[in-house]
Fold:
Amino acid sequence: MTFHNEAIDPEALPSLAAVPLTPVSPRLAPCQAILLLVRWLVVTAMVLLFPVRDEALALWQPWLAATAGGLGLISVALGWVEARRRAYGLREHDLIYRRGLLVRRTQVLPLVRLQHVESLSNPVERAFGLVRLACFTAGGRGADLVLEGLPAPRAEAVKQHLLARLSAAPPEPRQTEEAP
Amino acid sequence: MSEEGDSPAGAERVLADWQRLSPWAVGLMLVTAGLSLVRQHLPLLLAAVAGLTLVERIGWREVGGAAALLLLLGGALCLLYYRRFRFRLDGDVLVIQKGLFEHREFKVAARHVQHIAVHQPLYLRPFDVVQWQVETLAGEASRIELPGIRRGQSDALGRRLQADGPDSGRVEALSEGLAGEPDASAPPGSRVRYALTPGALMLHGLTSRSIYVIAAVLSPLVRPLERWLHDRLPQLDLLAWLPASPLVAVSLGLVAVLLVLAVLAVLAAWWRFHGYVLRDEGERQVQVSGLFHRQEQALSLARLQVVEWVQTGLGRLLGRGYLVCHQFGSLGGGADESRRFLVPGLTLNESERLIGELWPGGDRVPPLSRVSRLYWRVLWLRILLGLGAGVTVLILLVGVPPLPLWGWALLSAGLAGLAGVAAELRWRALGWGRRGDYLYVRQGLWGQRTSVFPLSHLISLTLRQSWLQRRRSLASLELQVANGRLTLPFLEASLARELADRLLASVEGATVESATRTFPETRRRSACAARR
Structure:
């Protein structure tokens, strides 16, 4: 086995920071807000309706529920702003997804690692015409990258592009199971 | 198998037709399925036995009858499973048909195979039968087992499936007998890369994590032992020769417990790694070990993703550690580590030599860089919060101790100091470095794990920046590799971006090269298949 170690000019490497990212659909913000609102309403209702035997503690129960509701409202507002800032980018060899408000995450998935793509949508997302794309790699136990907030036609186009790349790439190993 | 099937070429020809498991596999399946059921439902089983003892109408005869009935039922099901189970080699594709109530067919192509393991428990040695397992790139979840085939069939399968793997130009014949001595069983053309000496085996036992596992397993016995000693000690007249000082007696007791644990850990290592030999068979690396339960694992170098050099706290003191070779789909950390391709009882020099032999150039570990000092503060705060939460829970459970104000101040200072020491140790342990095409990441507290992998083996990456990090121009880089996530926290933002760019360029550049190399071969295979 021969060992090569050729020098690479770091300046010549394609820069991740220079990639122009495309914002996701603006409809993701209300969609996320509704989902968060439902979640926090459940939490607030549970805090309010939880049977408390202790009378002193029961006096505090509405206040605790109000605190949970307040936290929920803050969470919904932050979720709205965060959803407006999400963006994605598709380069020749990788897929980029940026999310997060206080903690900003930029995830990059080289397309060569892609094994299969799934499109998903819950009823709220369908009402807003949005689709999620879940990208899986070899050996992973779940989706490695979930691209949220794509309008259905755009999601289909991105999916077709990824599938075209998959079929163009050399076949990745996979275990097959068939009914006889 | 017939005489024709005994020769390597004959075995491969025979495998082209449908094969059944060895008849001894029925007994093996009964034993393994029974043990597995007992292990999984032990509390339920104990409760059932306890319940039966209370019912007076059920005596030993009824219990024996029920057991015999269960045994008969299990035997019949195993026999049916045996009849439904068949396999064959269709070119370079292993086809397996099985299923008790639902018929299933599996197809595993040779180019998808990443790991083959062969197990031979003591009770199967006289019959020359082995358990054969194959794992594809989908990871450990994809493991398929042939529960009991003849040794010759296992050798032929291994030879055929890994010979067709990628970059397998120098594959040699597989070993001829698991039960024999390692040197005698080595196939011609292979060479021994590493053999475990008895001293190294003992040190591995002492320094491996099994000592903690054994302590955890035996911990439920502490209370009965304490009760037994309390009842028996006065009658045994041991007090006459026990040291008068309680402190000395307790210290001696602790030393005795540690000695017992150490002996058990060495015995466990001896059981698992007796006669350990790592053989180089070109593209394949084969390891054989085990005292009674012999195991053989074959690793394809083309499928090797990450090599991890692991040292426990005691291992660092005694200068010993072990290497774990990770492929796709393995969990990170110590989870289920014993099932992986593990090279035990190594010194640092030996580990570097082995890494260099597996990956030329990978042995030259560069001086590792530390991350920003700000990370120490973050760690300190996290650990302090954890300790604070622990103390709060303790107070809620036990009650508020009657401490004066200076006592509380001393406790707080002690917790802060403890958190500071732990944060310092973690911060010092965390290091990373790049040399040539390889990245090195070290993590830990008392024990340390150093992951080594070629840049092109990255799966995906995430660049993470919190509000604080953005203000300080820092960023964390999360690298997803075959054995899980490696995090490089609090790097200079420009450095993190440059490293991310370089990693992506390596993955994508390597792929383009690989595609141009692999495509003609893939197309040729497809054309052949279409013609057939």
Notes: The CA atoms of residues 41 and 47 of chain B lie 10 Å apart. Chain B touches chain A through 55 residues (CB under 8 Å).
